[in-house]
Specification:
The relative contact order is 0.06. Strand 3 and strand 4 form a beta hairpin. With about 220 residues, this protein is α+β, with helices and mostly antiparallel strands. The model is unreliable at about 215-225 (pLDDT under 50). The chain folds into two domains: about 1-95, no CATH class; about 120-205, SH3 type barrels. The longest helix has about 45 residues, at about 1-45. The protein has a five-stranded antiparallel sheet with strand order 4-3-2-1-5, covered by helices on one side. It contains six helices and five strands; from the N terminus they run H-H-H-E-E-H-E-E-E-H-H.
Length: about 220
């Protein structure tokens, strides 16, 4: 008997306490906002509503709307934080899976290279002779410091990632002497577009100018002959 009564008692507490706390918090917030905003809002709305009763009702209604908006914003921020924590927890799980971990890390690094603005992996777009002399490939500098490979080679080198077309997510990492790297004016985004299109999209080329296209074709024909 006493066990049932105690269980009912605590069940009642669980039902009523959250409601009482919520009501008290809302009452406290509205009371504070009434103290801070009631007089300024009354002065603002008083120019259009001379009736004191309607003026007070409208002012308190506006305060309630402000409270509701603040609660919505707080709830949205809380959900964003919760979602962020869920993603971080999921990443920690993926990092511990033996086979998936290196794949996920590489995909994540490539995503940071493409979408991160603060600390991108690809620093600049360059042109290098690859896979042999006389043939050029688009590359992206990933690091300006050569480290041990540069010291052992005895040269000032840079690390370059040469993507494959049309999937720039895969490619080859090469270490190139700095004096053999040709700096391009195109941005990393334009370089990626060129790689994905297989060279069909060339930044800086005026596609609308028929004369430019015909001159380019003539020059290529002469070089071929």
């Amino acid at each position: 008997m006493w066990r049932k009564l105690r269980a009912y008692f605590f069940t009642g507490l669980l039902i009523i306490v959250p409601s009482v706390i919520t009501f008290w918090v809302l009452y406290f917030i509205i009371a504070k906002l009434n103290f801070l905003l009631l007089e300024p809002l009354t002065k603002i709305f008083g120019a259009w509503i001379p009736d004191r009763i309607y003026l007070e009702i409208l002012t308190k209604l506006v305060i309630v709307i402000i409270v509701a908006a603040l609660l919505v914003l707080i709830g949205f921020a809380g959900k964003v934080i919760v979602i962020r924590r869920i993603f971080r927890w999921g990443e920690r799980v993926l990092y511990k899976v033996p086979i998936i971990s290196p794949i996920y890390k590489s995909i994540r690094d490539m995503s940071n290279a493409f979408f991160s603005e603060k600390n991108p992996i690809f620093k600049r777009t360059v042109l290098i002779e690859y896979p042999r002399n006389g043939i050029y490939s688009i590359g992206f500098v990933t690091s300006e410091a050569g480290g041990e490979p540069g010291r052992k080679a005895g040269k000032d080198v840079v690390n370059v990632f040469v993507p494959t077309s049309p999937t720039p997510g895969s490619g080859f990492f090469v270490i190139v002497p700095r004096d053999q790297v040709i700096q391009l004016d195109m941005s990393v985004t334009d370089g990626i577009k060129m790689v994905i299109s297989g060279g069909a999209v060339v930044p800086g080329l005026n596609y609308g100018n028929t004369k430019d296209r015909s001159d380019t074709v003539k020059k290529e024909g002469l070089q071929g002959n």
